[in-house]
Amino acid sequence: xxxxxHDERFMAAAIRLSRWHLGRTATNPxxxxxxxxxxxxxxxxxxxxxxxxxxxxxxxxxxxxxxxGATAYVTLEPCSHHGKTPPCSEALIAYDVARVVxxxxxxxxxxxGRGIAMLREAGIEVDTGVLEAxxxxxxxxxxxxxTKNRPYVTLKLAVSADGMIGREGEGQVAITGPEARAxxxxxxxxxxxxxxxxxxxxxxxxxxxxxxxGLESQSPIRIVLDPSLALPLTSKLVETAREVPVIVVxxxxxxxxxxxxxxxxPSALPGISPTRGEIGQRRDPNPQADSSSPATADVxxxxxxxxxSPPVGEMPGRAEGGVPPTDPTDMDPRRAALEAAGVxxxxxxxxxxxxxxxxxATRGISSLLVExxxxxxxxxxxxxxxxxxxxxxxxxxxxxxxxxxxLDATDIPSGFAHTGTLMFGGDRLDEYERGL
Length: 436
Prior knowledge:
The protein has 436 residues and is of the alpha/beta class. The chain has 12 helices and 16 strands. The strands form 3 sheets. The chain has a 9-stranded mixed sheet with strand order 11-10-9-8-12-6-13-16-15, sandwiched between helices. Strands 2-1-3-4-5 form a 5-stranded mixed sheet, sandwiched between helices. Strand 10, helix 10 (331-340) and strand 11 form a beta-alpha-beta unit.
């Protein structure tokens, strides 16, 4: 059967529905499903919070007997394997639907093509690839974790009219207005984790939670790249660690900064191996989730032979905010104090995002928002590990002692396509994405 405008209209509705629970379905993707009979929607659902029940089973239950002979519109290929719940393909067969229309084929090797085959073997007509680009966009985090074994990374920057993202020595500086800041809160609410460098954590003392009314419970895991465990125990992050998880990524070893070592990356210092990857030793925080990517073999045993140098201003003793060097002999007490406050300390070279990101994926983190600072942004950009850039441009002028933005609209890296512009009050948001 050929694809009709009605098919595209119903699939567009299913894709919109799928976005309702982004960032709230554990390791499972947020999938939308509509059951349509004679042009009328008789059942609809999105993957439930925490990942179960799946969208198809909920929509079928709502449709009941009306599902017989109906068409199911699903944003992702129905699963075909037994996890914590029976396969959704079996449920569609049991309810005797006549046709299933799918936007995106599931890359999970346990499913890919098998769900479609099960449906066709049962005599159900199946059409795929309907609004596939839109479907892949809504499933970007899940697809990236499945195909690249790492989270989908969004870099968010707010840049002043004079090209600055802050002012030295003044902590957080308001660049965008309330409308844009509310939009950023919504982005945090649909993201699994948010990451900043230790310089930003100290200079700004951010909370990094979702503060929009009604969305507070959707705050992401907060991650700090902190090689020498310099995060103050009095910081907002530490003080709220028991309410919203905080992960501090420390170097596996800490080196004193001597005069001859000043400014050198860890890989240039004697006795420092790239990573031991202890981050991978903690079990999945969502142990009951049905769909998780296969473990990446040896992901934390070593890093690339060409390690990425740390941002110089965020090396121990020279982080933004003027952090003094941490005495290596003081590391164990500092780690104990942070852990006593509820912070999780893991050891994985903070300046090897190509190792850190797969390790985060093994924990079920599918989406990561990088919010600061300039040096951390450059680290991920130079590593080629940013998938989406959200660039806010505001009319405010920072002036003297401004911290220069790592990029602006005139020097977006190659490989990114401009996907849209929105205005929030007087602030302009331009979004750029790589192809999945």
